[in-house]
Amino acid sequence: MGRQSSLTSEQRTEAVLCLLRREEPAAKLARRLGISEPTLYRYRDQFLDAGKAGIASGAGKAAADREAERLERELAERDRVIGELTIANRILKKLAGQSL
Q1: pLDDT per residue as tens digits for the range 13-66
Q2: Which residue in 19, 32, 39, 76 is deepest, having the highest Cβ count within 10 Å?
Q3: pTM exceeds 0.70
Q4: Phi, psi for 35 (deg, rounded to 5)
């Protein structure tokens, strides 16, 4: 098993863009970043497959799916809270109307 890269997603993105713009040879770029050429090419492939999200997570589509599921859970939780607050608000309005 390989070791984990110490590059941030921003650094990975910049490295891939540098590679795609052919600003410097892949071997030199990889050496400067302290990664192997195959790692650099893997970042490039992930970037091309899934854009910046693929670079950030290293998992491409699976990461995008997880993010979508997380956002759906957050939305469902917010809908639940809004529903509870709406019910509480209606009850309070009724109680306020009765005391007048």
Answers
A1: 999 999 999 999 999 999 999 999 999 999 999 888 876 665 665 555 677 788
A2: 19
A3: no
A4: -130, 165
Query: Which residues 6+ apart lie within 8 Å of 10 measured at CB?
Result: none
Q: What is the DSSP string of 22-54?
A: TSS-HHHHHHHHT--HHHHHHHHHHHHHHTHHH
CA-CA distance, 50 to 43, in Å (whole number)? Answer: 10
Contact 58, 11 (CB under 8 A): no
C-alpha to C-alpha distance for 100 and 83, rounded to whole angstroms: 27
Spatial CA neighbour of 65 closest among 55, 78, 79, 54 = 54
Which amino acid, one-letter code, is at 12? R
Which are the contacts of 16, defined by CB distance < 8 A and separation ≥ 6?
40, 43, 44, 47, 55
